[in-house]
Design a protein that fits this description.
Oligomer: heterotrimer
Number of helices of chain C: 9
Shape of chain C: globular
Structural class of chain B: alpha+beta
CATH topology of chain C: 3 helical TM bundles of succinate and fumarate reductases
Structural class of chain C: mainly alpha
Radius of gyration of chain C: 20 Å
CATH architecture of chain C: Up-down Bundle
Number of strands of chain B: 20
Chains: A alpha+beta (247), B alpha+beta (648), C mainly alpha (232)
Number of helices of chain B: 18
CATH topology of the domain at 483-633 in chain B: Methane Monooxygenase Hydroxylase, Chain G, domain 1
Helix content of chain B: 25-40%
Largest sheet of chain B: 5 strands, parallel
Order of helices and strands of chain C: HHHHHHEEHHH
CATH superfamily of chain C: Fumarate reductase/succinate dehydrogenase, transmembrane subunit
């Protein structure tokens, strides 16, 4: 297969940046999207040009490092996958593929297709934990947790922190990310003690870091590689508002 | 025993060693902890849990990770589960049984005391993780659920769907975040350790590169903890993440930390087979699939031929024409034999010409009988995400056609040599998790890596490091203006400049692939004297080629991924050499290390306990001198060493 | 309750509460209009009842306040969210088919709804309740002079004009889009939603929007048809 790859190139945060189109040939349909970029980079380096910088690591859809906006969709045209699990068989031979970085005020650009997602760490540092020190925990089976609750908690905990929700949201909102953590912990008895402070602190941090407000378009859940539902946003809203009412 | 290898294993009955040791070692008072700094490199399960716990204790911790967030560490990709001797299933599990299975699974090449301690703290890990909000799978009564894993006859594996590693790491990461918010832990993301700084022979800091700005930074500390994972990526194609690397460990090795058992690399039996030359990595399918999947190849070579030609579908081959070779050879454990055994058996069948795909390097993992027995829905619940992942990658629906799998490099049992306190041969330098050599011997059992990472980080290192630091409470904050820092920093900068100025023709990846090919060919699943000799020569040649003909584009003062890769590859040549040297030395078949010369008549691995019941620990000399081998003999006081038997 | 309304969820809460009030008023207004089809005299008496009476005026003020807040916060949120989106925009964007067009364009649809409302006010409210407030007992309606409380005459007059009929139908279509998202979105923002109820509420929103808009449209069309029948 061959493709025209139209990629956003930007040397650093201060550079203006522009699209550059590259031709690439001899790509097997079984090649993953990132392997295609590897091949492109190999070619660029051989030609003495700067390779395209992009984030990637595990290449099996779990580390959340890869972050490309491909042909107008976060993680590209396939559903329930991260970019690293996207394969070239999902594209038409000869197609032009536009590759852009995540764009949002919360994720400043670092280089080419790499953005800075430290804001996610900061949001979690604000309260995305259960305050328990190592060592003092009681036996794991002391508190039974209904399977349904554990399952729902796990649904939310599947978040890989890639930022596709923010990248996709027309409001640049991180609500799905925040909700996934708040909801996951709120569904467990261990997480209930701090549920109110957690929701407030994490939301305040999200607002402070320049993410937008949710307008319930639901685009985030469609593009989320883990299919996390916006029903968790409803739970976050509930947790947050009921906490605020008690203040 | 070399006088440099003192394991510090405590005396006394096995079950009391850790308790006695804890009582005997010194502690640091809270007021003094505040004055001490610790650097933790790597934020996987080991690093994150250690840094969080040390922060809770009151130490000043600095963490370093190469990714944009601690949560990206490759522990996150562990799928199947984590072992613990809870005996919740009432199947007669116990600490002893977990210990015994682990030491037997490791082919009797690990320390009894370490492994027992691992089994002993395993239960507390589960308690801790549940308290952190890890959503482990539960049954309808709300109790924790378990599944079975290879090498065990009990169900002791706790899991969170197919994402156990992710959930455990998110738990540790959450604890870490709590400490970062408190200020006890400082986080340095997108920073890569490039060298260890020794002051008066003690580990006192690191030189790190800010991967965004390219700046070379000095960081001082009273102790340094290495939690940087394994060296599987030396094979280029492995199940490791693309950025996983052993550079930090090799830097420490060059500074005097001995490297233990490098030849023990685990080859995982259930990975998706390689599809072509442009492939960047291999994807693991969780071992848990072997709970319900049955492994087979056709009995008849003509069926194999027709399969490869695409004229026959696997599902059309009748039951009577299938060779369930694991069930045939190992009736007692069947499809749940340990990983090394399953991998070797797959290789044996493929070498005999029964490989089922066009490369001849694949066997079937079949769920049809499980689907018949339990229904598609149950299988979907258990493995849905793995099946989906398989289909996304291969475009084949595993509910209809069996999966194809083949062994691939997955984990490295070898690593930096550590004593019972997890301290390396460099005072003040610790190694935990996959980065050390300690607990898995020649072969790691499934669901034990997560256990070890968290055991080291939550429950062992935070105690043992106090013993060392208690002597350091008078030492002021480490001054990074010391000449030792300046010298090390200069050496790092020189190395970077040297790389940048080669301006040759080869890309880093092309050289890495070449190295991977050499390693897989000669030091992969089976090794022999001749091949290892060739490997050593080829590695040297390739290393020369690298240092004379690599091309690293860009500059040093920017985000430069090619430079990062080049620096890591430079260190990979060192570990490649170590693996081969160790494999040459170890003239026995043991765990993940199969010497073709050492096999029984029916093709089983032949160990040589007389000559090789020791840990090999390699001491670096210099670039052009071979490292020196030290031996730590392994004494088995409590278990009877036997040939592993998974047949009956 | 400290600072709840300065948070992003708090701002949405205001949109949610005011939106809910407005939608409830629409339900009431629509039911009232239906009466005009059944018997215009009854409708006129409702108009008289809702003229210059203290309860009607308070109601009007509350509605006006709610409406003002809804618009104000729509503006604030839109600007806030534009800032969060960042200065650079995507070259290509695909809106997934699962995402409703209305949800992505609530602000624009809202502007159409507000413009329609201005027209509606100038034609009805200004000449009815407001005229009464000024003390006028007669207003000009084309060439005729009518009482501000004879609502049916207003309806009959304006909806005999095909241009107004089309304008009102477009307005109602915009209103349908706005409510079809706004209805369940308001509940989601309050937190009254979950995995099971999400699709149900989305469906209910469409039913509700259809009910409201069909009700209004029925009056418009009924009076237009009547005007055609009357003149021929």
């Amino acid at each position: 297969m061959k493709f025209k790859i139209k990629i956003w190139r930007q040397k650093n945060a201060k550079d203006k940046g522009k699209f550059v189109t590259y031709d690439i040939d001899n790509i097997s349909a079984d090649t993953s999207f990132l392997e295609m970029l590897d091949i492109l980079n190999d070619k660029l380096i051989s030609e003495g040009k700067d390779p395209v910088a992009f984030d990637h690591d595990c290449r099996e859809g779990i580390c959340g490092m890869c972050s490309l906006y491909i042909n107008g969709e976060a993680h590209g045209p396939d559903t329930l996958v991260t970019t690293c699990q996207l394969h070239m068989r999902k594209f038409k031979d000869g197609q032009t593929i536009t590759v852009e970085p995540w764009r949002s005020a919360g994720f400043p650009l670092v280089k080419d297709l790499i953005v800075n997602r430290n804001a996610f760490d900061k949001i979690l540092q604000a309260g995305g934990f259960i305050s328990v020190n190592t060592g003092g925990a009681q036996d794991a089976n002391t508190i039974p947790i209904p399977k349904k609750d554990a399952d729902e908690s796990m649904d939310a905990a599947a978040c890989v922190g890639c930022g596709a929700c923010v990248a996709t949201c027309k409001n640049g909102s991180a609500m799905l990310f925040v909700a996934a953590r708040v909801s996951s912990l709120a569904k467990l008895p261990q997480g209930k003690a701090e549920a109110a402070t957690r929701a407030k602190a994490m939301l305040a941090k999200m607002d402070e870091l320049g993410f937008g407000a949710c307008t319930n378009t639901g685009a985030c859940q469609v593009e989320c590689p883990k299919g996390i539902s916006i029903s968790h946003i409803a739970r976050l809203n509930r947790e947050f508002l009921s906490a605020k009412i008690k203040d | 025993m070399s006088e440099k290898l003192i394991s510090k294993t405590p005396e006394g009955p096995l079950a009391e060693k850790w308790t006695r040791h804890k009582a005997a070692i010194k502690v640091v008072s809270p007021a003094n902890k505040r004055k001490l700094e610790i650097i933790v490199v790597g934020t996987g399960l080991g690093g994150a849990s250690a840094a969080a716990t040390l922060g809770e204790l009151g130490y000043n911790v600095k963490i370093f990770c190469i990714s944009d967030s601690p949560r990206r560490a490759h522990s996150i990709a562990a799928q199947g589960g984590i072992n613990a001797a809870k005996n919740y299933q009432n199947d007669n599990d116990s600490i002893w049984r977990l210990f015994y299975d682990t030491i037997k699974g490791g082919d009797y090449r690990s320390r009894e005391a370490n492994v027992y301690r691992l089994a002993e703290v395993s239960n507390k890990i589960i308690d801790q993780c549940v308290a952190q909000g890890v959503p482990f799978a539960r049954d309808y009564g709300g109790q924790l659920d378990n599944r079975s894993f290879g090498g065990a006859q009990v169900s002791r594996t706790f899991y969170a769907r197919g994402q156990t590693g992710q959930q455990l790491l998110l738990g540790a990461y959450a604890s870490l975040n709590r400490q970062i918010a408190k200020g006890s832990v400082k986080s340095f993301t997108r920073h890569e350790m490039l060298d260890l700084v020794l002051v008066n022979g003690k580990a006192r800091g690191i030189i790190a590169r800010n991967l965004v700005t390219g700046e070379i930074e000095r960081h001082g500390a009273h102790a340094v903890v290495l939690a940087t994972g394994g060296y599987g990526n030396v094979y280029f194609l492995s199940t490791n993440a693309m950025n996983s690397n052993c550079s930090a460990a090799i830097q420490c090795y060059r500074k005097g930390a001995f490297f233990g058992n490098p030849c023990f690399a685990q080859i995982h039996p259930t990975c998706i087979p390689k599809h072509g030359d442009q492939q960047s990595k291999l994807t693991l399918m969780s071992e848990s699939l072997r709970n319900d999947g049955r492994i087979w190849v056709p009995k008849k070579l003509e069926d194999v031929k027709r399969l490869r030609e695409g004229k026959l579908k696997a599902s059309h081959i009748p039951e009577s024409e299938r060779d369930y070779y694991l069930e045939r050879r190992y009736p007692a454990f069947g499809n749940l034999v340990p990983r090394d055994v399953a991998s070797r058996a797959a290789k044996e069948r493929c070498d005999a010409g029964y490989g089922v795909n066009n490369t001849g390097l694949a066997v079937f993992l079949d769920f049809s009988s499980a689907i018949q027995r339990l229904g598609k829905k149950v299988i979907e619940q258990r493995y849905g995400n793995l099946f989906q992942m398989y289909e996304k990658i291969t475009d084949v629906n595993p509910y209809e056609e069996p999966m194809m799998i083949y062994p691939a490099i997955h984990y490295t049992m070898g690593g930096i040599w550590v004593d019972y306190n997890l301290m390396t041969t460099i005072p003040g330098l610790y190694a935990i998790g996959e980065a050390n050599f300690s607990d898995h011997g020649g072969n790691r059992l499934g669901a034990s890596a997560l256990m070890q990472g968290l055991a080291d980080g939550y429950f062992i290192l935070p105690y043992t490091i106090g013993d060392y630091l208690s002597a350091d409470i008078q030492t002021p904050k480490i001054d990074t203006n010391l000449p030792e820092f300046a010298e090390t920093e200069k050496a790092v900068k020189d190395k970077i400049n040297r790389l940048m100025n080669i301006k040759g023709k080869r890309t880093v990846d092309s050289l890495h692939k070449a190295l991977g090919n050499i390693m897989w060919e000669y030091a992969g699943m089976a090794r022999n004297a001749n091949g290892l000799k060739i490997a050593l020569e080829e590695i040297e040649k390739l290393k020369t080629e690298f240092w004379s003909n690599v091309y690293v584009p860009g500059t040093t003062d920017e985000l430069n991924q090619e430079l990062e890769k080049a620096l890591r590859l430079a260190d990979n040549f060192e570990i490649a050499r170590l693996i081969v040297l160790d494999a040459q030395n170890r003239f026995e078949s043991c765990g993940g290390h199969l010497r073709e010369e050492m096999q029984t008549e029916d093709g089983e691995a032949k160990r040589d306990d007389e000559k090789f019941m020791y840990v090999s620990a390699w001491e670096y000399k210099d670039e052009n001198t071979l490292p020196e081998l030290h031996k730590e003999p392994l004494k088995y006081e409590f278990v009877k060493v036997a040939t592993r038997n998974y047949k009956d | 309750m400290t600072n709840v309304f300065t948070s992003s969820i708090g701002k949405k809460l205001i949109m949610s509460i005011t939106g809910t009030c407005l939608v409830l008023f629409l339900l009431f207004h629509m039911s009232m209009n239906i009466v005009a089809i059944i018997k215009p005299e009854w409708y006129d008496s409702i108009c008289a009842f809702l003229g210059v009476n203290w309860y009607a005026i308070i109601g009007t003020l509350v509605l006006a306040g709610g409406f003002g807040l809804h618009i104000l916060f729509a503006l604030i949120l839109t600007l806030y969210n534009r800032k969060a989106r960042g200065s650079s925009s995507y070259l290509a964007t695909v809106i997934p088919k699962q995402v409703s067009w209305a949800s992505q364009n609530m602000f624009v649809i809202g502007i159409i709804v507000a413009l329609g409302l201005l027209l509606h006010f100038s034609q009805f409210w200004y000449k009815m309740q407001f005229a009464e407030l000024l003390g006028n007992h007669e207003v000009q309606l084309g060439e005729a002079t009518v009482s501000p409380t004879s609502g049916s005459a207003f309806i009959a007059y304006y909806f005999s004009n095909i241009l107004f009929v089309v304008a009102y139908l477009i307005w109602l279509a915009a209103l349908w889009l706005h409510i079809s998202h706004g209805f369940w979105s308001a509940l989601q923002t309050i937190g009254w939603n979950n995995e099971i109820w999400l699709p149900r509420l989305k469906f209910a929103a469409k039913i509700f929007a259809t009910l409201i808009c069909l009700g209004f449209a029925a009056v418009v069309i009924a009076f237009y048809v009547k005007s055609l029948l009357d003149c021929c």
